[in-house]
Design a protein that fits this description.
This protein has 258 residues and is an alpha/beta fold. It contains 8 helices and 7 strands, in the order βαβαβαβαβαβαααβ. The structure holds nicotinamide-adenine-dinucleotide.
């Protein structure tokens, strides 16, 4: 019997993949959902080495039906849902004065609408099961920062913070907690793409020096990595007091201090 039935969105790479594998290492059956089905299959394969029921789900979370379908596919495949971890994100970076509707659409649909719809779908299943549950949203220090070249992403993560509070209150009567993790800077594909754009918009061709300056602004003086952040997700998903809800956990080396 698995420790818990878990769904991780954005599980094909970066933090989502690390979280899926760390949860499987704790004995959870994990459904790994992502737009990148091949990547999700690879991560599910690694999870299966720990818990054989783990499997992959292909989903486009920018669609209207994708989020609820993802949750239903997980519940069908694993026979229930105890934990939802939402890592999937779109991270469009562009100059503020050249902003495009496409960037806003990507950030708002994937980071906000999909997160809300998946949380509601998970809440319906957890309520019907009657054994509580935990939902973890991944937010960002960006939600609290002035980032002119990252405005859509930053605004979308501020919306995730708001959603976490609303969802926590909506689902509390059934013993379902909703929390969020604000992760530190990790060198994932998302972060590397973003920093390349930031450097280009700043007129900098010395990408490594540019990145080193950004690292130096982190109070702890180093970046983190997906494995370190996955430990925080595992804690929220399995170990934190069940009474903890509507909380935002900052694990940013001091970057998210305000
Ligand atoms: N990397 C960082 O430094 C950092 C810092 C703060 C917050 N975060 C947050 O951590 C989370 C994980 O980010 P990451 O850095 O691991 O990024 P990543 O790009 O490595 O992973 C994001 C995943 O989301 C998936 N995805 C994107 N659009 C999708 C869609 N429409 N449908 C389904 N899946 C989709 C991608 O395929 C990818 O596997 C995100 O919520 C991000 O905002 C990252």
């Amino acid at each position: 019997m698995a420790e818990a039935a878990v769904l991780v969105s954005g599980g094909a790479g970066g933090l989502g993949a690390a979280a899926a594998e760390a949860l499987a290492a704790r004995g959870c059956a994990v459904a790994v959902a992502d737009l990148d089905l091949d990547g999700a299959e690879r991560v599910a394969e690694a999870c299966r080495a720990r818990v054989p029921a783990s499997f992959a789900i292909g989903v486009d979370l920018s669609t209207a039906e994708g989020p609820a379908r993802m949750v239903e596919a997980e519940a069908d495949g694993l026979g229930g849902l105890d934990v939802l971890v939402q890592c999937a994100a779109a991270a469009p970076a562009e100059a503020f004065l050249a902003m495009t509707p496409e960037a806003w659409e990507a950030a708002l649909l994937v980071n906000v609408r999909a997160c809300a719809l998946a949380t509601a779908a998970a809440g319906r299943i957890m309520k019907a099961q009657g054994r509580g549950g935990r939902i973890v949203h991944v937010t960002s220090a960006a939600a609290r920062m002035a980032l002119p070249d990252y405005a859509a992403y930053a605004a979308s993560k501020a919306a995730v913070d708001s959603l976490t509070r609303s969802a926590a209150v909506a689902l509390a009567p059934w013993g379902i907690s909703v929390t969020s993790l604000s992760p530190g800077m990790m060198d994932t594909p998302l972060q590397l793409r973003t920093e390349e754009t930031f450097a280009r918009l700043a007129g900098r061709s010395d990408l490594e020096a540019f990145r080193a300056e950004r690292t130096a602004r982190i109070p702890m003086g180093r970046r983190t990595d997906p494995a370190e952040m996955a430990a925080a997700i595992v804690w929220l998903a399995l170990d934190a007091p069940a009474y903890m809800t509507a909380a935002r956990l900052n694990v940013t080396g001091g970057l998210d201090k305000d």
